[in-house]
Amino acid sequence: MFKLQELIRRDMDKLALNITTEQGKTLRDAQGDVFRGLEVVEHACGMATLQMGEYVSNVSSGIDTYSIREPLGVCAGICPFNFPAMIPLWMFPMAVTCGNTFILKPSEKDPGAAMILAELALEAGLPDGVLNIVHGTNDIVNNICDDDDIRAISFVGSNTAGMHIYARAASKGKRVQSNMGAKNHAIVMPDASIDATLNSLIAAGFGAAGQRCMALSTVVFVGGSRPWEDELIKRAKALKVNAGIEAGTDLGPVISRQAKDRIYRLIQSGTESGARAVLDGRNIVVPGYEAGNFVGPTILADVTSDMECYKEEIFGPVLLCMQAESLEEAITIVNNNKYGNGASIFTSSGIAARKFQNDIEAGQVGINVPIPVPLPFFSFTGSKASFAGDLNFYGKAGVQFYTQIKTVTQQWKDLPVQGVSLAMPTSQKT
Fold first, then answer.
1. Core vs surface per residue 55-81: b (16+ CB within 10 A) or e
2. Which residue among 79, 145, 213, 321 is the active-site one?
3. Rounded distance, CA 338 to CA 330, Å?
4. pLDDT along the chain (430 residues), means of 10
5. Residue 213 catalytic?
6. 418 DSSP 8-state letter
């Protein structure tokens, strides 16, 4: 893992260019994609400590009990298109450092980064056959779910695929960790720092063209959104939409024509349901890339919780603006949503922040932080419809997911045996 870390740093630019070429995100964002995955590789370098068990001497007279963690065997990972380097690096470094072999299925839309990472793992000294790449779509996924030799499956992607994988694999007795859809909210209080909050909303709402499971796609303005709208529009309009390889680009294209059409449809459904399109990015044309799958920054105001554009994860550069009269009402709006990946509050009040932290039903909570994804010595803790399974990605939970615990109780007798007792032991003294 130390060598793999070194090699990924060496080939950072190569990996980023491959991601931009296949996936479309900007080069700077692609480098961030690799870097956030690299953090998990660094975390895996501490596996000797992370796998430490527990030991108690003399739990009874002459009896010691201790636990050890052992590998499961064969594990598998099924990856989405939006982070071609980071998500594979969430999975296989932890799994193989725990002693497992691993089967990785990258997205069929952008598998290049996974192939480069596999080559680097071999160069780093990972033995042949420990990391295996398979390509394909539905049939391959179902084969992974059904294969008797595979003990555990990690998945990141849509709810439709995630729940299918969870149900099918769990019915075969496999462990599954399934990170799925999201509708991440920000609550903006009237006392929030104006500049810092606006910059956070723009960056977290439109970064990566909105194709992040932690994108901040919905803002609930306590006291109304109109005082914020003009400046939001101004800053969103200043973003440069272009091919990811072009200098100065803020937003690249979305992944496919089908994704673009779906985003357009959800924007249209919002306007037809009464939302105001205060900024509409559907008609954007990028010179030199006229046939590209571009969607410009879009802001829909006066959104309500019964609208399809709110219920569905748009997965595009669309920011929804909602309104609440109080913090309590805003928290209720967020908690009534089925997803629970992340939520943030922007405020200068410690009292409001504490109430939000305690009452909000989301796995990852940000206080004046727009995308509260933790460093990998903590776990990625999505909840509700955003996660299926018992053990989350990386951190201590990740180690637990890729290992099974074995408890050993040992006794070394140095006294004569005092006969045989067939009763349930209440003491280990005899």
1. eeeeeeeebebeeebebbebbbbbbbb
2. 213
3. 15
4. 98 98 97 97 95 91 93 98 98 98 98 98 98 98 98 98 98 97 97 97 97 96 94 98 97 98 98 98 96 97 98 97 98 98 98 98 97 94 95 95 96 75 67
5. yes
6. -
